[in-house]
Design a protein that fits this description.
This protein has 448 residues and is mostly helical.
């Protein structure tokens, strides 16, 4: 079917694109798991503190990763149009733009650290807040470096060269985990032993990925910033696609933080269970999420070449793979869940709640998650990010937050109620995304 549409993404090429993405995303989540397990040696308060601050960090990381991915879509569509010089210009504009924005936001985070932590997390134990401030002070400096790294990694992925970003990620994660082990178990540091390696690994990764992008043999490369000047049209295109993507992810995470303040009112055990549930359930979604990332590369180039039938064909093909991968991941994680929970040094109450959350997420996720999160990557790759942003934010705030508060507090379901509201949010997203995809408005959002 593909050849008469000018499609060049063979099954072998798709595997070559997606498998490194699965490895890379698994490694990224593994670091979060390793951090929380190692810091558990310090105690439940430290686990809770790291999970609280990481919620803010995930907001920043997700926002800039999404901005980078959206900006890279511009370059991907230029590749589809065979306009490589424009793709290179877009890459340079993206790198400088994301560095500037991330540096400004990081500075604001330091200035307003106490209002942010106290305002978002409310009344937590003093030792939890003390650990949280220490972790925050060290890790936040890494945000601009990670933002630029994300831009570089997104550019390699949009070229279809996901093996490079995987290898850099592998090195970063190895550096992080080894640093954690050294500083926590040998030097006997507390939360600093988790924070310092995270920062060092992100700074190192940024320099490596940007160094690799200097190769002039690459379809997209950034060999120099000499004579750089902002180009209005490119920045507008990057913002049109990347900013809604970043806003969607950041407000999505902000909503989760607000719900975390609800969870924190139920005590340290609920905070720990929520943290464990979030980390472990991420492994259930990693393969389907990676397939969504690969979908952006494929669809953006198809859309750039105006091969919309090809974009729909590959969306269908990749969604079938995503459902198979999601089912396999969820069943595997649920099978080894008793072993995973033993790795955490938390109370029986926290472990029991985490077990329920992981089971619920796995069973419902097999049915709903790929359609709610993998599927809309086609719309984003086509440049229809404003629509996906409006749907995601609206559904998040109307369904997940309102129903989350009602289920948790009014109905007395606690942290489990927050997660049940999340599943309602997924259903709403799916309805809107399917309706949009069945039409043709998203096919008209490409870069001119």
């Amino acid at each position: 079917m593909g050849e008469d549409q000018g499609i060049t993404f063979s099954s072998a090429r798709i595997r070559k694109l997606i498998l490194p993405l699965i490895v890379e995303q698994t490694l990224a989540i593994t670091v979060g798991l390793a951090d929380s397990i190692m810091v558990a040696v310090v105690g439940e308060s430290a686990v809770s503190a790291v999970s609280l601050v990481d919620t803010v960090n995930v907001l920043m990381v997700n926002a800039f990763t999404a901005l980078a991915a959206g900006g890279a879509v511009v370059a991907g569509q230029y590749i589809g149009q065979k306009r490589l010089s424009m793709a290179n210009d877009a890459a340079r504009q993206l790198a400088v733009f994301i560095l500037f924005v991330s540096a400004v936001i990081t500075a604001l985070l330091y200035i307003f650290r106490d209002p942010v932590l106290h305002g978002l997390f409310g009344a937590v134990d003093d030792d939890v807040m003390g650990y949280a401030k220490t972790y925050f002070n060290i890790v936040e400096i890494s945000i601009p470096f990670y933002a630029v790294y994300s831009a570089g990694a997104a550019l390699f992925r949009i070229m279809g060269n996901s093996a490079v970003s995987m290898k850099v990620s592998l090195f970063m994660n190895a550096l992080n985990v080894c640093g954690n082990a050294l500083l926590i178990f040998v030097v006997r540091m507390e939360v600093e032993g988790v924070a310092i390696p995270t920062t060092v690994s992100r700074v190192t990764g940024m320099f490596i990925i940007m160094g690799l992008l200097r190769k002039k043999t690459l379809p997209i490369h950034i060999d120099t910033f000499k004579g750089f000047r902002p180009e209005k049209n490119l920045i507008v295109n990057i913002c049109r696609i990347g900013v809604p993507n970043g806003i969607e992810n950041s407000l999505f995470q902000l909503g989760k933080i607000m719900l975390l303040s609800v969870v924190s009112a139920f005590g340290t055990a609920s905070i720990a269970a929520n943290a464990i549930g979030n980390t472990v359930s991420s492994f259930q979604c990693v393969a389907a999420s990676a397939i969504g990332t690969g979908m952006v590369t494929i669809v953006s180039q198809c859309v750039g070449a105006h091969h919309f039938k090809a974009a729909r064909y590959y969306t269908g093909k990749l969604m079938k793979i995503a459902y198979i991968a999601m089912a396999g991941s969820c069943l595997f994680i649920m099978a080894i869940m008793p072993l995973i929970l033993k790795l955490y040094n938390v109370s029986d109450e926290a472990a029991d709640m985490a077990r329920i959350l992981i089971l619920l997420h796995g069973i419902i996720g097999i049915i709903l998650w790929p359609m709610a999160f993998t599927f809309p990557q086609t719309l984003k790759a086509a440049g229809d990010t404003t629509f996906t942003m409006i749907v995601a934010i609206g559904s998040m705030w109307v369904f997940r937050i309102i129903f989350g508060i009602i289920f948790a507090k009014t109905l007395g379901l606690g942290v489990i109620g927050v997660w049940l509201a999340m599943f309602i949010d997924w259903v709403c997203r799916i309805i809107f995304f399917v309706i949009r995809y069945r039409g043709d408005k998203w096919e008209k959002k490409f870069i001119q």
